[in-house]
Amino acid sequence: MTKITAQYRWFEGASFDHAYYASEHMKITREAVKAFGLVRLESERVLWPTTEAAGAIVAATSAYFPDMASAQAALEAAGPALQADLVNYTNIRPEMRMAQVSPHLPA
């Protein structure tokens, strides 16, 4: 499984509308990437450590796909629309990464 993560790091003068992010932006994201095999979509609002400190991560999104090719196709196709929605909830540029996920279930 492959996970795409976008995280938002606080800076002086930053703004972030968590309500819009959790509802509207996640709807836009889900619709934009579901055709590429979306397995799971999560959003996070960081509660601890203190989020409004320079460099602290205030929010993140994780989108899970069956494989790297699906994740790359989703990112390529949906990226422009998701970037265009940024102005509706933040002035923070997201940091992106893609990772292979290995589940570790309890024995």
Low-confidence stretches: none
As for the CATH topology, it is Alpha-Beta Plaits
Give the strand line-up of the largest sheet: 2-3-1-4
**Element pattern in H and E:** EHEEHE
Shape: globular
CATH class call? Alpha Beta
Q: How large is the count of helical segments?
A: 2
**How many DSSP E strands?**
4
Q: Give the helix level as a range of percent.
A: 25-40%
Task: Report how far apart the termini are.
Answer: 20 Å
Give a brief description:
This protein is of the alpha+beta class.
Overview of this structure, please?
The chain has helices at 18-33, 68-85, and strands spanning 2-9, 40-45, 57-65, 95-100. The chain is α+β, with helices and mostly antiparallel strands and 107 residues long. It has a single domain (2-100), classed as 2-Layer Sandwich (Alpha-Beta Plaits), CATH 3.30.70.100. Helix 1 crosses helix 2 (68-85). The two termini are 20 Å apart.
Highlighted features:
single chain, 107 residues, alpha+beta, Alpha-Beta Plaits, 4-stranded antiparallel β-sheet, 32% helix
